[in-house]
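Methods — Computational structure assignment.
A single polypeptide chain was analysed. Its primary sequence is given first, followed by the predicted tertiary structure written as structure tokens.
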Amino acid sequence: MAAAEKTETSQTVAAGQLRAFIERIERLEEEKKTISDDIKEVYAEAKGTGFDTKAVRTLIRMRKKDQAERQEEEAILDLYKAALGMV
């Protein structure tokens, strides 16, 4: 096999891999958009039921953290609120 043929073959393989990566990313981006739209619908449904969506979003963020992390964050907030006379 000549050097030119090897280069052409490797370029074809690289182009095929690149195309596959791009197509996978495009599919995942579409799935992400669909999921994002579904989440918006759930928030709208919660709001329609009378729940405060800002509070719901805060709870979701809090639930992602472990208990120690939440306690540390709350302690810092309490300290800052006290410093500002907000207690």
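Note: The chain has one domain: 3-83.
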